[in-house]
Amino acid sequence: MDLVAASRAFVSVGEHGSFTVGAAAARMSQPVASRRVAALEERFGERLFERTSRRAVLTPFGRDLLPAARQLVRAADLLLHEADAVKQRPRPVAVPDVCSAAALARLMADARKQGLTLDLRAAGPARRLELLHSQQVRAALLAVPPDEATWCVPLGLAGAREQGVRRVYLETLRPSRLSPGPARRAWLQPEDDVPHVRDPLTRLRDALGLRPSQLAAARDLTTAAAEVLGSDDLLLCSPAQARELGLDWRPLGEVSLRRGYALATAPQDGPQQLEARLDDALVRCLGADVPERATGGTTR
């Protein structure tokens, strides 16, 4: 027996003195109201109403029980109201600040279709981890090595001019004695200034005999993009970022690099449910590699 539903029928019939009117007020049919009241009477072992052809008159037992039934119904209504409020309360989530405004807006819209209201906090890799540890957000997309990632984003080199090749090799940045002007550089944005991206590039730079200054880390994406747009320098970025900036993107020739992301949550939350509900939306937002989708600690 659903005690709340039965109590709701009992309260409504008792307040209106009629099964027909009380059932309508409680938005249920008269037979349903009768069955629910009868179930209560069977459970309590006492009659709640004296039934006549036109009226439903409370018995002394029913009159004494009615205030407690009202309290139960009001408490249930309050609980349902609070549950709706909690579901609609924005959930703070730290996301990469390299995601475009359009991508983040689409993520929020897709989340609402899944019954989630997100409060997105765009930040760099270190700040996202800090926001999660300080419990300023309930979830964060953390930068992780590709072999630990749920979502992976391909990286390549993009330039302001048409590059005319299928792949860009970092060795082409090696300056020659005849090259006029400063040596060309490959720029890292803060999102990629992390060990699993920076370290392989640094080793490759050294192996190719490039100058240390030819692999440069910018303080933000805007600065890095400005350097590239005004020179022959290259930007390490995703295809989506290159399109947004109007740059010509090509994959790296010597090494395959990807951003890796994993969803981490506060201790009281589990990432699995959030991942399941937002998986496709996050793939679109991040520009992740869809063909390699897999589960259980593999990459995409």
From TrEMBL:
The keyword Ion transport does not apply. Keywords: DNA-binding, Transcription, Transcription regulation. InterPro entries: LysR_HTH_N, WH-like_DNA-bd_sf, WH_DNA-bd_sf. Residues 1-59 form the HTH lysR-type domain. SUPFAM superfamilies: Winged helix' DNA-binding domain. Pfam families: HTH_1. Belongs to the LysR transcriptional regulatory family. This is LysR family transcriptional regulator. It comes from Streptomyces daqingensis.
